[in-house]
């Protein structure tokens, strides 16, 4: 199969190593590898054996069987079918930022054609073109977090749509044409007939959050299929937020990340090595 995960084995062990406060030499010593071997694995230039995967996983508090499935390219989430919900539609807008694909989304209420623009993918023209192509009526902008690949171009989108922008109260505020509207965990906003709930998923950023409606969550960089975002702020908070507010949802809940393929709660509970 074509391997489409955002994070490879090297990304996962690097994030877990840093999150646990361990150096390359610490993990090498505990796992029986050399520092050179571990560094090459994190740099994608050396593929591990299954035995090595399990030794590293034990050092990093990761699930060895799940990590091995990713390292050996045996798992990827099943594609999310279009039309899975008769009340909403998720439109993915993918742009290239520095050589890396980034997703923005339109969350559309089918009954009213109202839509939320979620993140910007740093390409406002692409977002506005998709709005025009789909014929939806955007009524608000939601930001999962303020990193440039998710918030750059916000002012252009605000000017073109006239929409207010919402962001978590604990998140640094990006440049905007107007005062941002602040959200906290549990706050809800309306998109047509849909009620969209804010879920706290910090750790990648101070106020990173996810947006949940019906059986759909836009998760930003809190979670990737088979992995998590980089814990720039707090590894503990990142894992806790994902565990408590995303993986506690029903197994058929669809998860749409800022990078990589969409997944489900059930897939992540069964295959994500961090949990």
Task: Sum up the structure in keywords.
alpha/beta; elongated; Metallo-beta-lactamase, Chain A; six-stranded mixed beta sheet; 14 strands; 25% strand
Please explain how this structure is put together.
With 275 residues, the chain is α/β, with parallel strands linked by helices. The protein folds into 2 domains: 9-71, lambda repressor-like DNA-binding domains (434 Repressor (Amino-terminal Domain), Orthogonal Bundle), CATH 1.10.260; 88-271, Metallo-beta-lactamase, Chain A, CATH 3.60.15. The chain is 32% helix and 25% strand. It is built from 10 helices and 14 strands. The chain has helices at 9-19, 24-31, 35-42, 50-60, 64-71, 124-134, 148-151, 154-161, 235-246, 265-271; strands at 88-97, 100-109, 114-118, 137-142, 165-168, 181-183, 188-191, 194-200, 209-213, 216-220, 223-224, 227-228, 254-257, 263-264. The strands form 3 sheets. Strands 1-2-3-4-5-6 form a 6-stranded mixed beta sheet, with helices on one face. The protein has a 6-stranded mixed beta sheet with strand order 7-8-9-10-13-14. It has a two-stranded antiparallel sheet with strand order 11-12. Strand 13 and strand 14 (263-264) form a beta hairpin. Helix 2 (24-31) packs across helix 3 (35-42), helix 2 packs across helix 4 (50-60) and helix 6 (124-134) runs parallel beside helix 8 (154-161). The two termini are 25 Å apart.
